[in-house]
Amino acid sequence: MLKINSSIRSLVSRSITTRQLVYEKYGAPQKVIQMKTVELPDKLEPEQVLLEWHASPINPADINQIQGMYGVRPKMPAIAGLEGAARVLKTGSAVKSVKPGDQVISSYEVAENWADYGIFNQKDIIHVDNDLPIEHSAFLKVNPPSAYVMLTDFAKLKKGDWIVQNCGNSAIGKQIIQVARILGFKTFNIIRNRENLGELVKEMKDLGANEVVTEDDLYDKNKKMKLPRVKLALNGVGGKSSLYLANALDQEGCMVTYGGMSRQPTQAPTAPLIFKNISLRGFWLMTWIREQKDDRARQKVYSDLAGWMKSGEIQPTAMVKRSLEDYKDALSEAQNKFDKKQLFFLKK
Predict the structure, then answer these.
(1) Range(s) of the domain holding residue 282
(2) Active-site residue set
(3) CATH number of the domain residue 328 falls in
(4) pLDDT tens digits for 45-63?
(5) 3-state secondary structure of 304
(6) What is the CATH number of the domain that holds 207?
(7) What tens digit of pLDDT does each residue of 209-268 get?
């Protein structure tokens, strides 16, 4: 069991000063995000928990929320950061769900992860595996469970079945590849052409990708490339790419759209909609969480994922560690370079 050392005991017995990345209006992240230093209250309410954040990444959802283009719009001023991992430092008198030393993530209803410390109601935090390394726990909230749920909830797949996805080189695309491999599914991955294509293809195949092709090859009629017939297609791009994914669906197949990186409308062919009865679904992890009648499904997802991460079956997300002071550069890189995640590494 994790022991709390004397320096932490001293820390939680007095008031705490914390840095926070906040915004008071929506806009370009580099322009509206500011660093502020505030004092947290000395005493906790009975249901409150004091957390020390250890690491928090920058996700596309963070950028969209700061721009005012996300499904959840926080009250202003707001502390940014939708995902991260923290340790419990102190609990209020009525808290039963966690204890000092436990590793937690914030619930899907709250953000406020881009800070050194924070005070949360116990209902707004989720206890995760205490032994899960920070390189995994900091990314546990969004992409891995999204990959898992999309692969298991929208089609009845059996081992050996193919799925197709665009956006295969993204952080969630790589999670999809790994979880699919673990579950026994094969992945056909579509990516954009680039200078380091050979290196990227090798990386994806090392993770478990079965086939990797570029959009250019797929669209080239002279190459006559065919996608496998599938029950499930995962669309994170939209536009022309989504049309090809939908065309790959077999009878009763389903295309799940979870993103729109091209900023173009998702497309679908008419004939398969009529004659194959294919379906087009949207996915947002927040909706899935809200639909669960109890915590058992979510707990199974986290438990399975943590086990695969600890065993090495899921590799750590490629990252660039940043201090909170480097937030402007980190935000810029997060919007222009997509091969590695920008991670605020907060634990000193």
Answers:
(1) 143-287
(2) 70
(3) 3.90.180.10
(4) 999 999 999 999 999 999 9
(5) helix
(6) 3.40.50.720
(7) 999 999 998 888 778 788 899 999 999 999 999 999 999 999 999 999 999 888 899 999
